[in-house]
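Reopening closed ticket. The problem is back. First fold of the pair:
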Amino acid sequence: MKIVSRKSLDVQPVFDIGLERDHNFLLDHGYIASNCFNKSHSVAYGYVTYQTAYLKANYPVEYMAALLSSVSGDQDKVQRYIANCRSMGIQVVPPDVNSSGEDFTPREQKILFGLAAIKNLGAGPIAAILQARQDAGNFTSLADLCSRLDSRSLNKKALEALIQTGALDLLEANRHQLMNDLDITMEWASRRAKEQASGQGNIFDFFGESSNTKTFDTAPKTTRVQDYSSQEKLRMEKELLGFYISDHPLSVVSRSARVMAPINLCDIPDSSETKIVTAIALILDIKSVITKKGDAMAILQLEDLTGSTEAVVFPKTFDKVKHLLEKDKRLMVWGKIDRRDEQTQLIIDDMQPIESVRMVRVELTREQASDRQVLQQLKTALNPNPSYSNSNQGNSSYGRNEPEASNKIPVIAAIEYMPKLVRLGNQFWVQDEETAVKALQKAGFKATYDSLVTK
């Protein structure tokens, strides 16, 4: 029923859906009760929550594939859910011309990227691929694909998109080779189709062996070339899918880094943090800006495994970090979350390439972790002169409140039998990892140092 007007009737008895006796949703003169649906909504939402929790727990691959398909038009949500898949141990793999459907498809313990998510590949080409696959089985080579789908069904731009996103990797793993062979293969397939139409088929066609793989051995090929680098493959995947699928530039970051930089970029809009936060991110885009005073600054688009956010580098910080501002640069960034003007941004205070970031790791037993005296010894070893550090903002040998990025070496603790690592506060981060480790070992702790990036 559509509400066309409303009027206060003071206090009136209403009937809820939770009552066993007869009930209705109307008050006098046909007006709708304002709270007649509360309990029904609670029950419905509760039931849907139970259903989705059951599916996620018992059919995680199928559930996540359906969830990804439902938000396929929203890149931010897709990226966040792909990150969820990684955390659940579910691999989201590049599309495959012989297996992928239009949407995300569960396959064993993996999820295949849907063909519809590939740029430059419209509904018509996708329908043609699926129909050809249904009629005559899987494609065996690039020549087979070009022969069974003419350029009106699958043009060069669409074929390039399939190659560059890895959809033909199982036919030929060398994507660079496929790109080199594409033009002459399409010309060969077009010429062959015209010959068949005019009754001039080759000898294999004459003996009815057109589906035999020998038919495609006659397709011309270019000189063998070296495949694209991993970085170039990722760049093309990002351009055509909107995401890194086969790998991610930040996947080399060690598990310890998640403790050092615990915030995900997708969580920044909802974060309640007001102090300095640490994140590991990739620079996607850089916009240079000149202020009214003539000072240079920059607006960055940052991305991690979960999503992206806008970051601002004001002039004072810009002068210090401008040599690091390059597209595709992987960084550990320090900054503050700013929510002015109904927009959430990360205000960059400092940054450092992840390749140069070091960390100190100290191992503790459960008894040590719960012993106040031991923890005080740990603090003293890391920061032997806390009063001096607090008063001089970072001139101590070991610890400081907010050290410069070049001196920011985090300290993490691995506690016995605990699956998660613990990050010590910024005031206990150190300037020199070797000096800090020696001090910890001298105090009786088992300590080592390592790099942020895994080998």
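Second fold of the pair, where the issue appears:
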Amino acid sequence: MLKNILASRPGLDDWLFSAKTLAAALLALFVALAFDLDRPVWCTGTPREPG
């Protein structure tokens, strides 16, 4: 059972993808803050369309 748990741990590629995604979101947030947008936090995710 311990082998199964250890096998499902995230690998280096997973951590790298996560770090790059975080860096992109933070960069987008800082750019949105620099342009003084109304709701700059929306740049970190894609909002759903109403309806």
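Update: turned out to be a display glitch only; the data is intact. Helices lie at 2-7, 12-34. The radius of gyration is 17 Å. Please close again.
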